[in-house]
Structure formats: structure tokens, C-alpha cells
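User: Thanks for the earlier help. One more: CBO0543 family protein. Can you show the sequence and predicted structure together?

Assistant: Of course, both are below.
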Amino acid sequence: MWMLLLSVIVFNVVFLFMPKKLTPIEIFSTCMFAMVLQQLVDLALDLKLDWYGYFFPGVQWSYFIPILGIYPAVNAIFLNYYQYMASKARKFWYIVACWIFAVGYEWLAVKAGYFYHHQWRLWHSAIVYPFLYMILIAVLNWVRRIIRKSI
């Protein structure tokens, strides 16, 4: 539990003090999308199929700590530092670095005991993370297009 609480503090302090390149509505809308997507996936893979989960099978109040304390901050940090005007190679290596961090963090979360795998394996996550990053980037681009149209 100490790693989870330390993670919540560190990720949120980084989020609060990083120089913001995103507008508040971009941060809000992409974080809400990320949390809804995460909840839909967890509903199927965690609660229905029991492939992985937080703490113990089923729903607990402690489940809200990583959902509200980590996901929004990590989403905003990832999108804030993504270099939209950089070369494709630079974008690729940024996603690779985030991918390595995410897989390593998930491994540590399993070792720390606040996340568990049943049928899900770490290599499944390794396959999925790059696609999730591309979805988040696409959603931010979509939000920006909506904002431009409304102005």
C-alpha cells in the first residue's frame, strides 16, 4: 500500500508543478475519457472475467485510490510532454519510454500487492499500452478539433 500512496503523491505533485502545455479543458476532457475507458475495460476484464484487479477480487473502496489518484495525473503528464510537432522518430521513442515505464510500474504494482494478475499477464499489458497511448493522443487531437470549431 505504501507504493500506491507514494505513487499518488509523486504523480500528482509532478502534475501540479509541471509547466502546462495543455489547456484546462484539454486536461479535463482527456482525463475523463481515460477514466471512462479504464472503467469500461476493468468492468469486463476485472469484474466480469477476473483476469486482473486491484487488491482483491470484487469492488472495494480502496479501488478508488489508483483510479482517481493515479490515472488522471499520469494521463495528463503523458499528454502534456508528448511532442506534437516533433519528428516521428522522437514521438516513437517518447511512446517507447512511456511504454517501458508503464510495464515496469505494473510489474512493481504486482510485487507491491495492490495489483494482481490471474489470466492476464504482463506481456498482455506490454502489447496493449502503445495502443492506449495512441488512443489518448487521438482523443486529445479530437478535443482540440472540437474546440477550434466552437471558437
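User: Great, one quick takeaway?

Assistant: The longest strand covers residues 52-54.
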